[in-house]
Amino acid sequence: MPQQPKPVIRIGIGGWTYEPWRGPFYPDGLPQKRELEYASRKLTSIEVNGTYYGSQKPETFAKWRDETPDDFVFSLKAPRFATNRRVLAEAEQSIERFFTGGVMELRNKLGPINWQFMATKKFDPDDFHAFLGLLPKTVEGTPIRHAVEVRHDSFRTPDFVALAREHGAAIVVAGDSDYPQIADPTAPFVYARIMGTSEAEPAGYADDALDKWAQCARLWASGQPPDGIETVAPRQNAATGRDVYLYVISGHKVRNPAAAMAMIERVK
Predict the structure, then answer these.
(1) Grouped pLDDT means (10 residues each) for the chain, 268 residues
(2) CB–CB of 102/139 below 8 Å?
(3) Integer Cα distance of 250 and 26 in angstroms
(4) CATH number for the domain harbouring residue 104
(5) Domain membership flag for residue 231
(6) Does a structural domain hold residue 2?
(7) Which residues span the domain enclosing 242?
(8) What's the number of domains the chain is made of?
């Protein structure tokens, strides 16, 4: 039997263009056009938020691909035109436009797609089943990973967990935030967004919090559910490990790169 590849833990931030990072993260004098090159060598992944608001040119994705190391991965926010709608089952054209608009130029650096929903969007089992059925398993021969970020309490039900698991979509883990936490693993990977960095902490989080999230990442990668992370359905260990994508988002944004780098050191 061929050996399964070892699960990979990737840790990063949201985006790379943020003026207050110049000095605390980016060295003084670094040209703005080299910020992605720099960030991608300090982090192991970045979640791109700009794709949520509008499309990018194919050559832009190709440029990002070429400026980053071979083992670097981008996660992309899916377009709001697909998720911010009353009837999700009608999103097929928006989904198709997204995948034919140049994202595949990232090639092997294309990570999961985060389908983020507004906090007012409630769980409609039939409509979400139809929506998840529209998400392609492969595009141009490349397997596509999908994560769904839901922010309404109505999703905290075993029915939603079962639906996501049926479609192989990860439920985004909302860490240190006011959004409902649904940390049930439902896919061959875990996608977490933690939002609790503080100005008072030089590394964004206190050491014990950094240790906690690094340990969560290690346990998810081993297939075990971490303690203290709230799930909806009964907990279960996986037969194999899972890849992990963990992003330090929101909070005191200036500190996010420091927090991500500190966790990368802890999971080495």
Answers:
(1) 79 98 97 98 98 96 98 98 97 98 98 98 98 98 98 98 98 96 96 98 98 97 91 82 96 98 97
(2) no
(3) 18
(4) 3.20.20.410
(5) yes
(6) no
(7) 9-267
(8) 1
